[in-house]
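[agent] plan:
  1. take the single chain provided in the ticket
  2. run structure prediction with default settings
  3. attach structure tokens to the ticket
  4. add a short note for the reviewer (M.T.)
[agent] executing step 1
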Amino acid sequence: MKFPRLLPLSFLVMASFSTQAADDPATACQQAAKLYQQQDIKAAKEEAQWCVTLLQQLMAKQTQQVFPDKIGGYTGQDIEQNSAMGMNITERRYQNKQGEISVKLTSGDNGAMASALSAMAQFGMSPGKAIRVQRYKGTDLSEDDFTQLQFALKNGAVLSFESSDVPRDEVLSFAESFPLAEIEQAL
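[agent] step 2 finished; step 3 output follows
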């Protein structure tokens, strides 16, 4: 009588182990290699793409961990992540009594678009004023009551700081306190 009650529990335990294995990049990458050796190219490609997806998720988690919870009197809100057409956007809004500063990291799987944005910023091709923070070149694209500061990271990603209710100098000070090098290393 006790055996039938344990049977569903054992299936749940086995299912959780198989889910963990299916979500492990190492397992997916090894499976892709195995399928390739078996000359099942289509299945190997699908498994390799799954491996890459899992690796990207791990990198996204690493990047999220580098965004500080508090910085310069501002408290970070929930981190938002979006991916489309090879671009990854990680955004976190920071708030205090004065207002809100949005920090947005744009990076790419192949780096093409992010590298283009980075090159434009580094060579002064963006329509703004050249600035520098923590040895990172950037562009001040601020207009009237909207502040936008963009910084090109050496790996091709772009980190931007934006606010419509915090003065430009405070946004710049916030950027100077932000862990740009750690963000770059997490990518």
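[agent] step 4 note for reviewer: Strands lie at 70-71, 74-84, 87-95, 100-108, 129-133, 136-140, 147-152, 158-163.
[agent] ticket updated
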